[in-house]
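Lab meeting prep.
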Amino acid sequence: MPETPSRTPVRILHLEDSRVDHALVKFALQRSQMPCEILLVDTLEDFQRELATRAHDIVLADYHLPGFTGLDAWDILRGSGSDIPFVILSGAIGEAAAVDAMHRGVSDYLLKDNMSRLAHVIQRALEVSQTRQAKARADAELAQSRQRLAELAEHLQTSIEQERADIAREIHDDIGGALAAVKLDLAWVARRAQDDETRRHLDTALEMLQHALGASQRIMMNLRPPILDQGLVAAVQWLAGSFEKRTGVRVLVRRSAEFIEVPRDVQLVAYRCAQEALTNIAKHAHATAVDMELSDREGVLTLEVNDNGQGMSADALRKTKSFGLLGLKERAEKVAGWLDVSSTPKGTSVILSVPLDGGADGGGAGHNREAENDDQSDFV
């Protein structure tokens, strides 16, 4: 017959001032056939020294001890940073004291006249502790994973914005310049063409070329509009005006000031939020009017986009593949802000809020005081 592999002994630190009770504990564990190594201490100094110098799996502590209680030992254990289970083993502990001990985080308690259950209580406390430690490790790993994903998302977003800026610059410098040069040459040829057929083809070519120029400018502006350099208010107004011309949907823009000064990263987040909101309206809302409000009152930048369309279902708002909204929420979090999206059958509301440095008395507040009682608004 093969030998049964021996289990690893449980290392027990026993805080007890009675040698008789210590012997009873050892006897009860021997009868339960629990392999263990048990060490006796009877003062807080010895208890603290053992915690610092040796590894233990569990603490058994009497409740009433000379000059202190088991809860004093529990406070020392918790203060040491150790997360090993702590079981109170007492001859007389009142119900109130037992409840208080459990509320303070003690693993369990057992009366000394019920010593036959000691091995079971120890085993259960160890299992609960192992489960709690495993959960803590899993939570820590999950938090690290989320942090890495957030950092990756931020890196990707930064890379995307940089690539957009680079592509927009290439479109402007290379494609736009080449198309403009070709247009001038065609116009020169058209002015000197003799027959009507040639002029007709040249006029058609010029129209197509003008369309290509317009398309390249539109693409360039969508990628990285130069108007952002003129400030957030001007950029949002340009975005609203372009949307209205393209879709025919009326857009009303309200702002708390002609110029709202915000950090560059916050400006880009707000602009992309407005852009994504208008894109969703054009694709899904079937709206006839859009209201946009931009404000920096009370030290918080707020961008609100409301439409009177058909709204979004709860399932659509919870869709895991709504990457546009998810991306905006990630962006908002990166600038310490938040994004709220709500919808009813009468329309959808998208609200971005970002605290600005300096609070209500900071940079943006001065603009608000100028327009405090007279919100400026434009039909764009």
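Slide two material, second protein:
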Amino acid sequence: MIVNRFAPLLCGALLAQAALAQDMMMRGLDMNSPAMTQAEMTRADVETALKSRPANLAHKKLSGLDLSGLDLTGADLTAARLNNANLSHAKLDGAKLDQVWALKADFTGASLKGASIFAAQLQGAKLDGADLSGARLAADLSGASLKGANLSKADCSADEKNQSMGLMRAVLKSADLGDANLAGANLARADLQFAKFGGADLTGAVLAGAEAGGADFRGARLDGVNAQKLDMNSARFDKSARDIFAQAINLDRAFAE
């Protein structure tokens, strides 16, 4: 009984730790510095590097480059700088984008199937129509646009093992996931606050323990969703989905419309 009594407090503490861990990555950085805004390579240089497979572009400064349409399959882009870069329709299947900086980067129509995107910063990025199916996505996508994106079977859950950087998870705060495919996606303990899911397919998705305060689930397909302890404070959903959210918390503070 004691464990049950304090479980919500423990959960809240862990979620606060997660937010702090990802916020700390932004602190102390000059986002207008050349290291974050300029490129040390040209598109031609990147194309040359891609002749070696898998290409090693780890820690490279590539901000602002037009890399659209390039085949970066399996490339190592660990900790690379891709802020404001254009990667629309690029192929990044199986690529390693851990700790990458891609603020406001354009991944429209890009293929990132099975990619590893861990502890990455993609705030304000554009991923409309991108294919992230089967990807490991524990990144900050606050304010990102993922309209029509494919995140089927993507793992966006909190990392329970490696916590050297704090608890990492997908942060989709205020993200637009309208008409996105999230069927079978794992969003356990993810940050979904104020996210928009209109027209999205969440069939069989795991939302257990996620924060969905202010999120909008109206018009989403929710068959088979695991909503155990999903925080629905101030969230909006269709009245017909009330039973689906029966195991959520703060459902009395949500808006069934």
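Talking points for slide two:
The longest strand covers residues 116-121.
The two ends are 36 Å apart (CA to CA).
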